[in-house]
Amino acid sequence: MARRPRKRSRWPIALAESLLLPCLLTIATRATAADAVRSPDSGDGSALAADPVGAMATIDATDLYLDLIINGTERGLVHLGYRDGTLWATRATLQQLGFMLPTDSPDPVRLDSLPGVQVRYDAEQQSATLTVPLKLLHLSTSVLNAQSASVPHANASPGALLNYDIYATRDTQGGASASAYTELRVFGGPGTLSSTGLSQTSRTSGDWHGRSVRLDTTWSMSFPERMLTMDVGDTLTGATAWSRPTRIGGVQFGTNFALQPYRVTAPLPQFLGQATLPSQVELYINGMKQYSGQVPVGPFQLNAVPGISGAGNAQLVLTDALGRVSTVDFSLYNTQQLLQKGLTDWSAGFGFVREDYGLRSFSYSRDPMASGSWRLGLTDQFTASAHAEVTQGLANAGVGGDWLLGHAGIVSGSMARSQHDGLDGSQLSLGYQWINSRFNFGVQGTRSSSGYRDVAALYGSPSPRLSASAQAGMSTDGFGNFGVSYVHLRYLEQTSRYASGYWYKSLGRSASISLNLNQNLDVSRDRSVFLSFSLTFDARTYMSAGVQRQGNRNLFDASISRSLPTDDGFGWRTQTQQGDGSHGGLAELDYLGRYGQTQVGLVNFGGNSSAYAGASGALVLMDGHAFAARSIYNGFALVSTDGIPDVPVKLENNLVGHTDRHGLLLVTPLNAYQNNKLSIDPMQLPADVRIGHVDTNATPVDRAGTLVNFGITPVRAASVLLRDDAGKPLPLGSQVRQRGQPGDPALVGFDGAVYLDTLDKHNVLEVSLPEGGTCNTGFDYRRQGDGIPQIGPLTCAKKGAP
C-alpha cells in the first residue's frame, strides 16, 4: 500500500510531475484511444487531461496515475489521489468518465463515499477497479445486431434468352391440340426487354385451327441503391391491400423491395436491457436461439428478426463476466403487414388499360389513366396507406392503415370515394387478425355502395358490393389441427355464402389423415366431404388415397408418385379414380435434365383415352455461345475458365457442373441482387496457368445473366537448371533476371534450379552471383506436355552475352 510522503519531499514530487506530465499525457491518450475501440464510452484521454498539476494538493493527497477499470471495462490511465487509505478523484475526472454527480458534491470526491460504489486498489499493479451502479453513470446505448445497409453490386452482361413451354395432346376420337408459351428476353447494362406470347392449334373434325397472341412486352430498369424499378410497356399498376391493380400499357415507376433482399422492411422488435459488467447476451424466441453476442457495460438495444409470424414469447439471457445469469421475459407480435418507421413504399403509373388480354395482341383503351399508391411507416406500430386513380370520367381516391395493437393483433381499415359520370360512391373496409403458435383468428369485410367504381370495374368485373370472410384455427399436440372459415360475396344480382371446416392429423413421421367439409349456405344440397390418407415412403415417394362425396356422388381415388430430384433424374405418378359407375386412370413419366424438363403420359377417364407430352426449358445466347438449360425465371451466371475445359464449378460449395470444351458453364438459377458464391477447384487446372482467384460472388440482376471470370491466364513456366563454367550448380541465392522483363529477380535454389513463369519464346537470363560478378545464358522455350518443363542444365557464361 502506498504511503503518504513527508512534507519536505513535496517539491521533488511537483518537479517530477512537471517533467513527466507531458509523457504521461501522451501515454494516456494512446491508452484511452485503444480503449475507445473496445468501448464507445471509454473516453479519449480527457479524463487525464482534465486535472491541473497539483489538483490533489488541496486535500494533502498523493498523486497517482492508475490503470482504471470500471465495471469490467478498461478506461485507461487516470489521475487519482490517495489519502488515508482511500482513493480520491476530482469532479472533472469523474464527469469525463461518465459519472453523474450532484451539483453540491465536494471536489475532490472520495470514491467510496459515492452510493453503491465499490473500490479495489492494487498498489503492485498500479491499478484500480471500481464497481459502480449504472444509475450513477451516463452511458450511451449500445445497439446490437444492427441491420446492415450494404447493397451488393449487381450487374448484367449482354445476352439473350428464350424460355419455352410446349404441350401437346391427342385422343382416340381424332382430336389433337398443341400449345406453346414463349418468353424472349434481351438483357444487358441498359435493362431487360422481355416479350411473352402464346400460340395454340387444335384439330376438330379433321381441320386444324390455330392462333397466336402476344401477351406482354416490357422493358425494365432497376436502381438497387434506391430500391426503385421502372417498367415501360405492358405492366400492372401498383395497388394497396384494399384496391385493385389494373393491367396497362404505359410506364410504371416505384419501390421494389426485392432489389435489397437482405433488408428487413417490417419493424424489428427491440429488446432493451442494461449490463453492469461486460456480458454475454442470448435471445430465445419461442425456445429457439435467435441471437448470441457480447454487450458492453451500460444500456443496450437488441434488434432481432424473430423468425415467427404472430404472437410469441421472447427470453433475454444475460451472463456477466462473473458468471451471474439474469433472465428477462418479453411478449412480442411480429407481422409483415407493417413497414418500419420512416420507410416508404410507393408507385406511380400512367398508360392505357389493356383490353381482351390473352385474346388480342394490341388492344388498349382509347382513354389514358393514371394511378398512384403510397405506404408509409409512421411508427413501428402504424403504417398509413393511400391510393388514387383517374381516367376519363372517373376519379377514385382513398386512405387506409394497419395498426398493431401491442400483443393483441392487427387492425386494418380503409375508406375510399369515387365519382363516375356524376355518380358518387364509397367503399369501406375493416379487418382484424391475431395468430400465435397454436391459435389463429381473423375477420375481414369490405362494403361498396352501388355507385362505387374503379378503373378495373370500367374495363372488367365490378367490385363486389359486399365481401366478408372469417377464419379460425387451432393446433393441438394430441388431436391435430382444426379450422373453420366463412366466405360471403355479394354482387349486384348474385350472392354466395360458404362455410367450411378442416381437420388434419399426423400419424407418426410418415403418415397423415385429413378431413375437409364445404357447405353452400344458400343451396343445402351443394355440399362436399373429402377424407384423405397419405403415406410417405422416402424423401421423394409417397402415396395418397381419398373418399369424396359431392352432392349425391361418391368418388374414390388413389395415387402413388415419385417427385423429380433436384438434379438430373426421373419422376413418375399413377392415379386411379372410381365412382358412380365410371372409372379411369392416369400414368405419367417425367424427366428433369440439365437442358430442361419433359413429360409423357396416358389418361383414360369416362371411356375417353388420350396421350400427352410436354417439354420446357430455355435457350441462352451469351459471350458468343449458345446454351440449353432449364427454364430460367431468375438470375443466372455464365462461368468462364478462359478456354480450359472440364473444370469443376461449385455454387455455395455444392458441385453444379464442369466447364465445356470452350471453358464455359451456365449456372442457374441464382438469386437476383444477392451474393451467390461460385468457386473452382485449382487442383483441376493445368500447372502452367496463373489464377486470379478461386472463388467470387456472382450478383445478377433480375431475370438476367452475368459473366463470371476467375482471371485464369496461361503462362510460360519452367524450372531452369543453371551451371557455371566448371559444370557445377550456381550458388544458392543467386539472383536471376530475364532481360527485358521488369519486376523482382528470381532466386536460385538447391542444385542450381530456378523457377520462372514469365518466359518468352526466346529468353536471355542475367545472373548476379552472391560473391560478386555476373553471368549470362539463353534458351528457347518449348512446351513439353501438360506439366511444367525442366530446361537445362544450361551453362551460365561469365563473359560475353549469348
Automatic annotation (TrEMBL):
Top-rank taxon: Bacteria
GO cellular component, one term: cell outer membrane
GO biological process terms on file: pilus assembly
Residue span(s) of domain PapC-like C-terminal: 722-780
Organism this protein belongs to: Rhodanobacter denitrificans
Keywords associated with the record: Signal
Pfam families assigned: PapC_C, Usher
Protein name (Swiss-Prot/TrEMBL): P pilus assembly protein, porin PapC
Annotated GO MF terms: fimbrial usher porin activity
Signal peptide: 1-33
Entry annotated with the keyword Signal: yes
Matches recorded under InterPro entries: Fimb_usher, FimD_plug_dom, PapC-like_C, PapC-like_C_sf
